[in-house]
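Model the whole thing, not chain by chain.
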Amino acid sequence: MESIFQNLLLGFATVFTPTNLMYSFLGCLIGTMVGVLPGVGPLAGISMLLPTTFGLQPTSAIILLAGIYYGAMYGGSTTSILMRIPGEAASVITCIDGYAMARKGRAGPALSIAAIGSFIAGTLSVFGLMFLAPTLASFALGFGPPEYFCLLVCGLVVLSYMTGGSIVKNLAMICLGLLAGMIGIDQMSGYFRFSYGVTALGDGIGLVPVAVGLFGIAEILATAGSQDIREVLKPRLRDLLPSRQELKDSIGPIGRGTVLGFLIGIIPGSAHIISTFVAYAVERRLSKHPERFGEGAIEGVAGPESANNAASQGALVPMLALGVPTGAIPAVLLASLMVHGITPGPLFIKERPDIFWGLIASMYVGNTVLLILNLPMVGVFVNFLRIPYRILYPIILLFCLVGVYAVNSSIIDVVIMSVMGLLGYLLRKLDFETAPLVLGVVLAPIMEFSFRQALAMSGGMYVIFIERPISATFLGLALLMILLGLKPLFFKKKDWRERLTEAEKGG
Amino acid sequence: MTVDRVSGAFLVLLGLLVVWERRVLPLGTASRPGPGYVPLILALLLVIFGVILIAQGKGSKPLRSLSWDEAPHAAAILGCCLFISVLLETIGYRVTMLIVMGFLFGVMERIKWWLALMLTIGFSFGTFWLFDTLLRVPLPRGGWGF
């Protein structure tokens, strides 16, 4: 316990430099803008801005990128409340009661409760991350190649189950991502694989062009040309503060949302989205007046918004402690750390305490910055919503291009981004999820390496994966998820995953 | 023809293509897997998932129900990406972006000419200044150093 607080002091010493404080502020500001603007998700935002961090110290870079990540989670609520358009998928559920409150002239309290809830949840979750990540990392130090391979299999299968949509399609996307991740030089034999003589593909296809293509360009292709003119409700800033009753009603939902969000956030998949649904359902179930939900109940804003922010911090636990990202956004954060020569995993916290604890401390700072930023500047962010999409998308396209080109100064990356954009557009049309594909690309090298090492260890005996208790447990869990995911093939009743998919599409 | 059946057929074809392309990579043995070992397993899994989708895809939505209203815009944007890929390093970032942004704002979106001009010049030169000059991320200058 004492060492944790000593380390946290080290973290604060790292963060409390004018430069790092500025990057924390800048990250939160950009993140909020990314979250506010429909069509620019946190993933595309982080990927596009990754090259701007190349010249920075690793600590400053990760502070900036993490700021964008949780800033986007904050910002997403603004459009949900004022326009009934979720700025990002995790804010879908906030649309229901947040917009109803805005219609009744209570946009200010809805926005401020979303900000306060997000602040409390974010801060408390950092506390959880602080204790859980080092413990998990120590546990994972005993993992050998079979355990690591089974952990990755389990993570990917859980992701395909939790993402929503067809589990068969999600598993196919993982395989496709893993295959794409194997393009380039095989690290064990030195063979060029599937690169067709293109030398630039030797290092593989790179996560940034894949992520920007699948999430940034595909979104532009799917939405450009739409002539939607939406009404933006203007919040009355003098009515920003919630009433005493509204504050009292929000305390419980914020607490429950924080715990639920953090725990669900650790699980792979659309955790931050799922956590909002669970938090909303719990609040409605616990409420003495469930009929108020949908008509502007403050609990329907406080619970999901807290859960969504807690989940975004929870998702960093496996990424930092095990080097295993649980979703596409942590995957891009992982890749950005790797660009700076840092490999998250069990040894990361021990070897680079300055970066780990600096990141933790920056989250405390970032959450405070976001609270200060979101409330007084809500009027400024609302003005972003008035920019027509036909003006916005060419600008987003330009930033996508610069972001991708600047990673390696390679035109091949621009070509990969364009191809991935087209692929992402077609996959959306055919009801495929693209997040499992991105994760496949990231995890392909480490997964193949562990698999081949494990087989070499056992002399080619596959039984090694089931005779070791930890790997057998992971495989058992993966099998259970596959069986649960295949249930809809045999039973026609709608399960929660189908409802999640419908809600995501509706958003 | 349904969406899932078309998707399944695509996956089967892709899987078979990978199986075919993998033949130049040594497979190795189970105790010493070669560079072609894992790609082969993944390609076979793709084929299996494709077959499952074809088999269960009867009830999914019909392919002709998909709306392609945004396709002309999408094609134009992809054309811009292709243009950028071919010419960015030859004519330089600023000229390429002037053409692309001018086309998107002025021709595709038909916004007021003065606004299109302002946005085109502002963003083409502004982002060059931001990334290349300020953040020192090198962007291509083209044959004549501009």
